[in-house]
Amino acid sequence: MRGSSHFGFSESAKNSIIAQPPKQSLADKTFSFDPNIFKDRLPFRTVEIENGAILTAPSGQFSEVFQITEKDDGVVEYSTSGKVADERLMKK
After folding, report:
1. Does residue 6 fall inside a structural domain?
2. pTM given for the model
3. How many Å is the Cα radius of gyration of the chain?
């Protein structure tokens, strides 16, 4: 899946996308990837960690906003820093 590194997809995310086409035969097709359409349709990437943390950033900037370190035991460590620009409570 070309373009996956540009958007910072993990192998797990890439495999999930490939596994979900309406027709499995589409997973092996080569197609023109338009990043503008991707950003329009899926402008944000969200990762939920098993400890309850939810991380969200613009799709094309996720790996720039968060430093991502994959540990040997399958644990992924995310870190970032900056001033709080907004804070919200959300309904389920």
Report:
1. no
2. 0.59
3. 15
